[in-house]
Amino acid sequence: MASLELRGKKYAVIFRFGGLKFSRSLKTSSELEARSRLSRLEENLRLVEAGRLVVPDDADVATFLLSDGRINQKPQLLRLTLSELFEKFFQEIPENSLENNTLATMKIHQRHLVNKLGGKLDILRLSLSDLQGYVRARSQDDGQRGKKVGATTIKKEIATFRVVWNWAIDHKLVSGSFPNKGLRMPKTVEHPPFQTWDEIEPLVQGMEEVEAKAYWDCLYLRVEETEEILNFVQEQARHPFIYPMFVIAAHTGARRSEILRSQIGDIQRDTLLIREKKRRKGQESTRRVPISGRLRTALDDWLENHHPGGGHTFCFGEMARSRTRKSNVRPITGDEAQDHFNRTLQSSKWKVLRGWHCFRHSFISNLASQGVDQRLIDEFVGHTSEEIRRRYRHLLPDVKQAAIQSVFG
């Protein structure tokens, strides 16, 4: 009926009631005390089921059941700290309302916010001055590749804070809008345009490795280069799931998270159903992409000859350490996928590729260079805004040159 979970050094109780899942911190590190409160909660659930205890319609269910029916509502907090606000948010948001990757990113943002603003900051006194001080301090931190943390990263951290603040408004924990009006960010540096291998290679001659990586991050592969790298991976991959993952990325434009989210049932004879991160009106959004011949062959071999079982398309089969335990099948994580990407390419010229996303903008660029209708490209990759379309609307250099020559000679 209910269970305990150790979160850090404190126990929390998880239970279901009325078809909903509830989670509440018990604010104790004592297992004995936690189990005692768990037993009382389970007894109260049995009393409710028997009709001997009635939960009022306006009651906070977890508070009511954990207090043996003596308290209907949570006590109103006269003071709420930054750490408490985030703790409440992560405890009380519905299960599966956010992707695991999104939650992990938000928790990284939380750590930076708490580190700079202080976990004991009275959230009810948060001001624009506090946020501006955060931006100023954060912009002095070391970022990736010898640079300082940029405006784009800081904007995402502030956006996470705003999401949590708006949630707190809905739950009557704070009042008033998030105080970011007038917040100023550091100037952004424009990234180099997406370019082909032949364009980037002469540009990075003589550059330091850190400086050159900024250009290689903007690489997109021609069709023949895409097939060359897939041939390399097919021969060199250490695990049978790696090659089909590369082919899906290259031949569908799917993001890494979308590849890892894939279920076996999403693979049909001619099309692949891609489960997107975004949601429309609370429902998971999807799109369909035709399956190429090479992808069909790669998936068939993986599923028929190597797949360890389970519903996910890409997963590990972990061997049990005991004869009394069965082997465990679990999906591949984002960090594991990136690690295998790097390991597979580390001894080749393709080691300059930063990650899976290179295949996505290569897929889009090659479709655009062949004159594929923009509406079809949007349908394949899930783009909806004109801003994103402009970002990927870059054709191969020789196609551009041919266009100019066809007009001006």
From TrEMBL:
Family as reported in the entry's similarity comment: Belongs to the 'phage' integrase family.
PROSITE patterns per the UniProt record, alphabetical: CB (PS51900), TYR_RECOMBINASE (PS51898)
InterPro entries assigned: CB (IPR044068), DNA_brk_join_enz (IPR011010), Integrase-like_cat_sf (IPR013762), Integrase_catalytic (IPR002104), Integrase_recombinase_N (IPR010998), Tyrosine_recombinase_XerCD (IPR050090)
Protein name: Recombinase XerD
One function term, GO molecular function aspect: DNA binding
UniProt keyword DNA-binding, yes or no: yes
Limits of the Tyr recombinase domain: 216-405
Taxonomic source organism: Blastopirellula marina
Pfam family membership, one: Phage_integrase
Keyword S-adenosyl-L-methionine: no
Keywords: DNA integration, DNA recombination, DNA-binding
